[in-house]
Every structure is written in structure tokens, then in C-alpha cells.
Amino acid sequence: MSYPQTREEAGNAPTVGVFDSGFGGLTVLRALVARMPWARFAFLGDTARLPYGSKSRRTIARYAAESAQFLVNEQGAQSLVIACNTASALALDAIQDAVPVPVLGVIEPGAAAARAASATGDVLVIATDATVHSHAYAAACGGKGLRALEKACPLLVPLVEEGWTDHPVTAEVIRIYLDELRSDAARQGMNPDALVLGCTHYPLLRPLIEQAIGGGTQPAIRVIDSAESTAEAALREFEGCVPAITDLPGPSAHESQQTEIRCFATDSVEKFERLGSRFLGRPVGDVGLVDLGG
Amino acid sequence: MSYPQTREEAGNAPTVGVFDSGFGGLTVLRALVARMPWARFAFLGDTARLPYGSKSRRTIARYAAESAQFLVNEQGAQSLVIACNTASALALDAIQDAVPVPVLGVIEPGAAAARAASATGDVLVIATDATVHSHAYAAACGGKGLRALEKACPLLVPLVEEGWTDHPVTAEVIRIYLDELRSDAARQGMNPDALVLGCTHYPLLRPLIEQAIGGGTQPAIRVIDSAESTAEAALREFEGCVPAITDLPGPSAHESQQTEIRCFATDSVEKFERLGSRFLGRPVGDVGLVDLGG
Fold first, then answer.
1. d(CA A2, CA A250)
2. Fewest CB within a 10 Å sphere: which of A7, B131, B165, B202?
3. How far apart are CA B22 and CA B272, in angstroms?
């Protein structure tokens, strides 16, 4: 059986819009493509205006709403995944108000996966400074009866962007961060059995993180990749808007290399094209430059 | 003898404006205060709109000109130091056009100090990605008959901001970067004897950098701190606008703790206040929030 190869052939194949302030969200797109290879995808990185983390909630809401409108109005997205922790934490409502399609963020699926994975009810979360300051994961986990301890790991994004995803320095930095986090948890009498990767860059560090968290005599901690959790949630939640995976031919992982993906950025197309393929697991192709204004 | 303690007492003491896109430029301010403790200083970090490095030249020029106008028109600066490599590289002309006071960037003084320090005529430059991509140091050094080899060291700013300025991980990262740089230089037949710190964060890493560059059997390489070079150049160039250091009572290094410094930021005052003192070498005090528009 064949599946759509081009936009014309795709006909009614649904378009899923994926939005991030940068290009880290390409890890979420990668997870989405693996689960919905028959869909079409439009990805927008608002690279001209990053980092969102240092901006006010109102500014972030305006930027995210403009980006969402581009994906829906210009790219025909019938559903949206907000593959950005900051925007998911601070602007999900504003985005939902701005566009008439279902919108899914990364935080709720990550917390739900932690709930499903944890027997003790205690979970750890690592993320950027901005995400930790928002306490969005702690709130989402708390809403599900979990106790969450969050830790900012500001060196991990630069290490990934330097390409040191399998480097002794990165392994050492991860070991230091996770040792500090486990010590803090022990001091608070917590007994964590799950670790949420609360940043879209971190899936590239998963092997090193699993090595660090599984080592020694400490009890095992399960790693929750919120990119994977979000893709699974998208598959369930968008059922009304996109055909269920069983209704359409399911190409193999190899064939999903041919899924249609259009990438856009608001600036820094060069860096996006250079680094993006590592996040997406395949070439990002030409990245379109979009002007959303100041 | 006494020197001005307050703005009122200071009377005619000159105000030097210092501008950066973030707060790294506080290392330049620190060097300026050490040389002109009798002056008053107004520092602006355009933190809401950083990083400048990923933006277009036109946008950077507009941001930098607005920031310079704030320092001159609102804070009464009679001279300006652009303590930001990106703005110095891409917007010095635009700033000079925007304000009627002398303006000094960080790149020219760094290159001049390298020229004075180098016997071989070959120099190394480490800086951020954006500064290296601008090749501003290579051009400034080339104009003085030097051959410069530049290397981007994107992990160093995050390591400084994490507070790991005396950490084994940072020492290892510096060793890796400098080994790569020296190997590249050797491959190109260069014989460098000076290393320019082309980023305002790097003075905090000077001890580790000197350790790494001085080690082993390789010939000695002199470290040029462009913050120090810029402060020395400011003292010379602003002679007409500010009294020469010999004309005014010179307080000791201890007394320079009392030099009047007013700090402003366009966002993220919390991070500025938390991290700034490490860069400035004394508390930054209350940081005023300034709105320069989008």
C-alpha cells in the first residue's frame, strides 16, 4: 500500500502545526512523525524572538498567538502542538483563544506520563531556568496527586547545541545535576521513581541521563520523555481532526523519512538548518523565513 | 583628600554611559571604575531584547541607538562605552550617528592591545558564536597587520552564568577549546603569542584560561582582556570630556567601591541583580527597569 508522497497526492491528509520558540521542539515533531507518518506537518520556530523564558507572560502570549495563527491561517494546520515548555506553561489559554483548532502543550502530557509511571507518587523534573521558575510541571503533577521536585539545568541546552550529546563533559554535568537533585529529594523525604525531561532539547541526552540515573546502588528511576508523551497524547486527542492511525496505511519507521514536513523560522535560518537535523533525526530541508513583526 | 560621594557632591564629575545587550558588560564597567573612580557611571543592559547575536544588523543598530540615547538624554552621559561585542561589531557607526558624545567600542581596544602584546604578529581570539561570525576581531587585527584566528566558545557564557567560574568542568571545557584552537593555528602555520578574550563574560574565567594556555611545554601566550584594554582606551580617548585621572583625587581600589554607579535593565532585573555583582566585583544595588519599547 502507498501513502501520500506529495501535498497533491496527500489530498485530505491532515496538517498538524507544531510550534516552538526555537528549534528544540523538533524533538517533539520527530516523535509525532514516528506516530503519525501519514499526516503532514508544519513547524514554526520563532527564533527571532527567543528566548521566551526571560519575557513577560503578556509578551509571550502575544508572540505565541501570532505564531499559532501563522500555522493555522497560512499553513492550514487543523490541530496544534505547542512544543515549547515556556509557551505551554504561560500561554496555552491565549493560544486556544487565538485559533479555532485543538491545541496541545507539552506539560500536561509529561505530567500524565509521570503519573502513570510513578508508584511512589514522587517525581523529579529537570528543565530550563524559565520552566522551573514557572513551576508549571510542579502544578501539573500536583494536580494529579504527585509530589514533584524541579531542578533547573541551564548548561544542558548549550551542551546539546554544541553537539556534545555523547561527551564526557556532558556526562559529568548531568551526573552533578542529578546528584544534587537526588540529594535535595532525599533531604525532603521524597522517594522518587520517575524523572521528567521537561525541556525539548533533553531527549538528545536521554542515553547519558539514563546512564546517570540508573547507576550505582540507588533505586531505579524511570525517565519520562515529554516529547514522546506529547506525541502519544496528540495521537489520542486529535482523533476527531485526523484519521486514527489504524484507518490509514502505516508506513515503517524508514518510510516515515518521507512524511511531508515544512519548517519555518522567524530568524537564524542558518543555525536552524545546521542543528535542526540532529533534533529531527532527518534533514530539515529548506527552512522558510517568516516575518511576524517585532 | 575627598572625592564625590553623592550625585549632588559630585557636581561636575563626568558621567560615563556604559551599554551592553546583557550584563556581561559589567566586567568592562568594573575595569572603568578601577581607572576612573572619580567619575559617575550609568550602565544599561538591554536584557529584554538579548541576544543581539541572532538579530539583523539593522535591528541591532536600532536597539543600540535607542539604548545609547537613553544613557545620553536621560542619564546625562558625556561619553559612551559600548561594552558589547555584537553592538561594537555591527552598530558602532549607528550609535555614533545617534548621539553627540564620543563613543568607544570593545573591539578596537582589544585589537590594539593584541598588536602591542604580540611579537610574532599571530594572535588567537575566543568569543561567542555571533562575534566570531561577524569576524570583527579578525578585521580589526588585520587592520593592524596581525593575523588573527577566531574560535567560538559557546559553552563559556552559560558556565559563567551557572557560577562555575572555578570548576573542574569549566577547566576541562576551556582546555578542549584552547587545544582545538592551538591545533588549528599550528595547521595554518601560525605561531600565536597572544589570546584575546573577545567576550565580556570571559574575564571571570581569566585564571582558568591562563592556567590552560600557560600549561605544558608550549610557548607562552599572553592573555589580552578586552575589558581592561577598553577601560585603558576610554581613559585616553575621553580626556577632553572627563578630567584626566591626574587632575582629580585618585581614591584607592578600596575607595572605588563608593564610586556612583546607576544600573538599568530593560527586563530580567532579578537575574541582573543576582548575577551582576560577580561581574562588577561589588553589589549592583537596585537595578532600574527601563522600557525602550519592542
1. 9
2. A7
3. 8
Taking each helix axis from N to C end, the angle separating A107-117 and A226-237, rounded to the nearest 10 degrees, works out to 100
Chain B contact probe: residue of A54, A201, A273, A292 with most B CBs at under 10 A = A54
Is B55 in the same domain as B147?
Answer: no
Specify if A1 maps to a domain. Answer: no
User: What is the extent of the structural domain holding A174?
Assistant: 108-227
CATH of the domain at B222: 3.40.50.1860
pLDDT tens readout for residues A198-215: 999 999 999 999 999 986
A180 touches B at CB < 8 Å: no
**Residue at B182 is within a domain:** yes
Out of B226, B257, B279, a domain closes at: B226
Q: How many domains does chain A have?
A: 2
Chain B residue numbers with beta carbons less than 8 Å from the beta carbon of A176 are: 169
Q: In sequence order, which residues have a C-beta less than 8 Å from that of residue A197 and are 6 or more positions away?
A: A110, A126, A203, A205, A206, A209, A223, A224, A225, A226, A227
Interface mutation target, options B173, B268, B291, chain A, most CBs of A under 10 Å = B173
Residue A161 inside a domain? The answer is: yes
Mean per-residue pLDDT of chain A: 89
Question: Which residue of A129, A161, A169 to mutate against B (max B Cβ within 10 Å)?
Answer: A169
Catalytic residue among A141, A153, A199, A263: A199
Lowest average pLDDT, out of A44-58, A241-255, B22-36, goes to A241-255
Q: Is residue A198 part of a domain?
A: yes
Shared domain for A212 and A138, answered yes or no, is yes
| B199 carries an active-site annotation | yes
Q: How confident is the model at residue A118 (pLDDT cuts 50, 70, 90)?
A: very high
Rounded distance between C-alpha atoms, residue A95 and residue A112, angstroms: 21
- pLDDT of residue B188 exceeding 90, the answer is yes
Whether the CB of A176 is below 8 Å from some CB of chain B: the reply is yes
Q: Do the Cβ atoms of B172 and A173 come within 8 Å?
A: no
Give the phi and the psi of residue B224 in degrees, each rounded to 5.
-105, 115
Q: Is the peptide bond preceding residue B283 cis, with omega within 30 degrees of 0?
A: no
B93 touches chain A (CB under 8 A): no
Q: Is there a contact between B173 and A169 if contact means CB atoms under 8 Å apart?
A: yes
Same domain as A266, residue A218:
no
B267 and A47: CB-CB below 8 Å? no
Does A26 lie in the same domain as A62? yes
- Could you identify the residue written with the cell 503519525? A36
B120 and B222: one domain? yes
pLDDT band at B95 (very low <50, low <70, confident <90, very high): very high
A54 has a pLDDT exceeding 80: no
Asked whether the predicted pLDDT for residue B5 surpasses 50, the reply is: no
Domain final residue pick, A193, A227, A261: A227
What's the start-to-end Cα distance of chain A, in Å? 47
A47 chain-B contacts, CB cut-off 8 A: 54
CA distance A132 to chain B (A): 14
B94 Cα to chain A: minimum distance (Å): 20
Q: Are residues B217 and B156 both part of a single domain?
A: yes
DSSP structure class, residue B219: P
Distance from CA of B46 to the nearest CA of A (A): 12
CA angle A151, A157, A163 (to 5 degrees): 140
